[in-house]
Amino acid sequence: MRLGRLAPAAGGRGPAGQGAPAADRFGAAGPARPGRRRRAVRREVRRADARPRRRRRLLRRGPLRRRRRHPRRVHVPVRRAERQVRAEYPRLRAEALAILVHGARDPRETAAFAEGCVRAADEGLAGIDFLYTPYDTEADWTPMYRLAERFAEAGLGITAHAGEVSTANIAAAAAMPGLTRIGHGVHAAADPELMRLLADRGVTLECALTCNAYFGVLPEVDGHPLTKLVEAGVPVTLATDNPVQLGTTIEREYALAAGLGLGPERLADLTRNAIRAAFTSDERKAAMLAELAEAERTRLSGGRGGPATR
Ligand SMILES: [Zn+2]
């Protein structure tokens, strides 16, 4: 049971990047680059030449103002979407994350987007997922730490993508103010020091088995170091990442984890980790933990149950 990423489109990575090699898929899928934006503005102004009123308006406000850059009023659409999905999957809970792509954006645009996220913290946005370039070698995290401090102050949960394609950036991410989760982080398994660091700080890894195999960042699912991370005491959860593009479900991810040797108790631990690390209210966490305990009781008494994957 992973919290869905009902992230607002702004700053999200589009499907264009999904087929790209793992190392550069974020760069490739980042939002419009400044050069492209400038060309778009020029094109719009040129097109407006024939229409003086439109031209005046464009010059006054700029065409980019018309684009919604901030994830405003997040709560209502997220809860509506959640209700729709819960009609089929009653145990699902969802919260909205905004994806902040750092390094691929014009710094002013990043600043404006970050301001929007801070405001949206009062409107139902639950957390921020940091993506940055370079992704496969150590990045400069200083500007991201400053932003993370502001987000944490605003009460937003913080996660960052790191350690998906190499061990780079895992330690830097773990030191980020307010960070409690890392997207992927699986390459930490190659370094006992890193695993100890994550275990000591209680940083939860969002492991996406199908995704890792699909992008070839690790050998086939069979060789995934999930159990090694669990044994090292790193809090781990299962995640689908992009379920539609990858053709997976959270149920399937649990089945794959079982195939790696995790028994029902260990799988339930992963669900417990997910609930504890969720960017959601204490009430929701308590309700989910109670549901999990109930499912555990049912399983132990011989009924059908097991980890709450549906
Ligand atoms: Zn991911």
Explain the layout of strands and helices.
Layout: E1 4-5, H1 25-29, H2 34-48, H3 52-61, H4 75-86, E2 94-102, H5 107-120, E3 125-132, H6 142-153, E4 157-162, H7 170-174, E5 179-184, H8 192-201, E6 204-207, H9 209-214, H10 226-231, E7 236-238, H11 243-246, H12 250-259, H13 264-277, H14 282-300
Parallel strand pairs: 1-2, 2-3, 3-4, 4-5, 5-6, 6-7
Helix pairs in contact: 2-3, 13-14
Q: What does it look like?
A:
With 310 residues, the protein is an alpha/beta fold. It has a single domain (4-33, 78-300), classed as Metal-dependent hydrolases (TIM Barrel), CATH 3.20.20. It has helices at 25-29, 34-48, 52-61, 75-86, 107-120, 142-153, 170-174, 192-201, 209-214, 226-231, 243-246, 250-259, 264-277, 282-300; strands at 4-5, 94-102, 125-132, 157-162, 179-184, 204-207, 236-238. Helix 2 packs antiparallel against helix 3 (52-61) and helix 13 (264-277) runs antiparallel to helix 14. The termini are close together. Mean pLDDT is 82; it is low at 1-33 and 61-70. Zinc ion is lined by residues 161, 183-184, 241.
Low-pLDDT stretches: 1-33, 61-70
H-E string = EHHHHEHEHEHEHEHHEHHHH
Helix content: 40-55%
Give the CATH superfamily. Answer: Metal-dependent hydrolases
* CATH structural class: Alpha Beta
Percent of residues in beta strands = 5-15%
Derived from helix and strand composition plus strand pairing, the structural class reads alpha/beta
Shape: globular
Main sheet properties: 7 strands, parallel
